[in-house]
Amino acid sequence: MEKYVLIVAGGEGSRLPSGMPKQFIELNNLPLLMHTFRAFSFLDASIVLVLPENGISLWEELCQKHSFSISHKVVSGGPERFHSVKSGLKQIPDDALVGIHDGVRPMVSRDTIERAFDMAERKGNGVPAIPLRESVRETDHALNRPFDRKQLRIVQTPQVFFSTLIKKAYNCSFDERFTDDATVLEAAGFPINLTEGSEENIKVTLPVDLAIAEYLLSKH
Amino acid sequence: MEKYVLIVAGGEGSRLPSGMPKQFIELNNLPLLMHTFRAFSFLDASIVLVLPENGISLWEELCQKHSFSISHKVVSGGPERFHSVKSGLKQIPDDALVGIHDGVRPMVSRDTIERAFDMAERKGNGVPAIPLRESVRETDHALNRPFDRKQLRIVQTPQVFFSTLIKKAYNCSFDERFTDDATVLEAAGFPINLTEGSEENIKVTLPVDLAIAEYLLSKH
């Protein structure tokens, strides 16, 4: 089945103190987003990149500066991640597989990507997830109680889908329950298949995450 | 009320690839455990350190090498964290406050420590916790469903207790539900009070955590 990767980098990166939106920050002399592209370069897939409208010209400059040659199409996003994905999905044909990936997860491994695509090919969707390492408690106003972390999985990306189904699922209005693409597909009535993610596949959202990403990149 | 800190470093650190148990590994030229001691140095408290039996002589050498002068008593631990804490609590008098802290959490802030001690002084116990940043799903064999992360808190240390109560609570046998000290007190019938922890108060258990800790220490 034909493969597509939708890299979602529509956010303005308001959580990092530097002025630069986080997807453009340089890690080991390369913008974070280019590391993300590289992680998918082994895959025979077409890439669609969703950027905030006001970030597109900066991205083009960076591509020129770094002689960035991985072919891709750029589309502009919307106010929420939901709208950015919806906008990107318009570029994906039916009857294909599409992996929707957070632009700020540059450390995703080949294994994680392959497992999610394989599962989606067999069962319609594949969503990488990892166990929770820390003890957690469940709170409910004043009360709180222990919660068995063995029952929980932290969800990552790429979340891979049979494109016909995820496009149909996204043909709806935004709902607060939509924390990722799996929850959108699920609202359309499809069960989700979890695959094994990896500890290193972190989402870079805080300054400390940049330090982690630099450390991990230096080990590869 | 008199204050005590019980630093628990009874583990053998099997998860790090270097031969050295992780509590002794050097971060910015100082063993991790000494950074942890330093985090408590503002507090007027007596410190008890629990170490594995076979780590005590190494600790003494390190103290000499680094001219480490923070006064403390050392006791040897047991096979599980539960037994190590139980062993340490024997050194704590009744009618005091005791903060039980993971030796491998060197980044704990003064604010986190003060909030937990203040809560324990007022209500018998104080347990630092932070919100979960990632999307999670709940799994139950083949099925899995979204789980509202807003209901969850990641539990940290120091967990601070009125010593009379936590010593009584630990007067029991090990149970698999005991993932931390709060769950032991809770099993004895006491409700737990959560206080605000901090993102930086990480537990150093994997090699990447050492990199994070070095980065955070370099910022202080």
What does this structure look like?
Two copies of one chain form a homodimer. Chain A has 220 residues and is an alpha/beta fold. Helix content of chain A is 30%, strand content 25%. Chain A has seven helices and twelve strands. Chain A has helices at residues 32-39, 56-65, 81-89, 110-123, 163-169, 181-187, 207-218; strands at 3-8, 26-27, 30-31, 46-51, 73-76, 97-102, 125-131, 136-140, 143-147, 152-155, 159-162, 194-196. In chain A, strands 1, 4, 5, 6, 7, 10, 11 and 12 form an eight-stranded mixed beta sheet that branches. The radius of gyration of chain A is 17 Å and the shape is globular. The model of chain A has no long low-confidence stretch (mean pLDDT 92). The interface between A and B is large, with 40 and 40 residues. Strand 8 (136-140) of chain A pairs antiparallel with strand 10 (152-155) of chain B.
Largest interface: A-B, 40 and 40 residues
Q: Kindly state the mean pLDDT of chain A as a whole number?
A: 92
Query: Would you identify the regions of chain A where 5 or more consecutive residues have pLDDT less than 50?
Result: none
- Describe the global form of chain A: globular
Order of helices and strands of chain A: EEEHEHEHEHEEEEEHHEH
Quaternary structure of the protein: homodimer
Class per helix and strand makeup of chain A: alpha/beta
| Biggest beta-sheet profile of chain A | 8 strands, mixed
Taking all Cα atoms into account, the compactness measure Rg of chain A is 17 Å
Span between termini of chain A: 30 Å
Number of helical elements of chain A = 7
Helical proportion of chain A, percent range: 25-40%
What fraction strand of chain A?
A: 15-25%
